[in-house]
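note to self: dont lose this again. the chain is below, predicted strucutre after it. 346 aa total, dont forget to put it in the shared folder this time
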Amino acid sequence: MSKAISMQKKLALIALPFVAVVIALGAFTRLADAGLGCPDWPGCYGFLHIPTQQQDIQQANMAFPDQPYEFDKAWPEMVHRYFAGTLGLLILGLFLLSWKIRQVQSTPFKLASVLLVLIVFQAALGAWTVTEKLHPLIVMGHLLGGFTTFSLLTIFAVRVFRPANDITNNDISSFKKLTSIAIAVLFMQIALGGWTSANYAALVCTDLPICQGDWTARTDFANGFKLWGHEAETYQYGVLSLESMTAIHVSHRIGAIVTSLVILLLIVSLMKKAESSISRKMVPLFSSLLVIQVALGVSNVVFHLPLSIAVAHNGVAALLLVSLVAYRTIIWQHERQFEQQGVAHG
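---
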């Protein structure tokens, strides 16, 4: 039993950075316009490896004459699939180990089950991304699935490791609700960012702070946030009008302001009211990630979406989200512990 528990912890530690890499690779693939680098799934032009030999490339072009093979777009897509597939095996391992020790009270078996279902659904979304030719709703859903997987794995790790800390009842009552709000607002902002990227709206506004001089006169929110029904043959490079893309971009900017203010409110509250060292440690963590994320967002506009900065923008958003999730999980753990102690004393 102890060996299985130890293995579970090791797998959780491996899976956490692994999912971060998968998210970064997914962002790189999407932003490098390589989402259709392989027109089929799960292979690439009929191969389970990246075609590099001349005869394989000729065979690939014969099989898909309408989508000629491009190595620069095929390799990011396949590397992303390799890593995503490996992540799926890691989560399967976590599920099997959690099932084996499910009688141990601290084992989050239900959470492991949810993770397994989620990773299978993520695989389906990956396939639909290709078959539906980068439909924005599916692309955004695939991105949110990755962030959700990272968040749930973070919760899993915190629950199995149970890090020692000195959080107090006052900290729990002061920061529980505000941390939950910050997580919800940030997740919505990430969804807006995914919708912006999936609709190729990131470069529609290259000026600050007002987009195109007049937001109200040059926006079409109805079509910009029409989730389904465009009936395009392919969604690569976008199918929306300039006004629709402007509406999406503007919404993401406004969302960034709201999200920053909410997280800043949490930081200020922690600075003023935190009693425990674990809560005080959140101040520099949240502050640094927020400053970096805002700087990356501005840099994307100023420097016209450099690939490295755009990928980093995705990555830091993920780190900010899981940092908030980890802190909220610690609050939940100790709230539950205090409740159990109260019942025991009662």
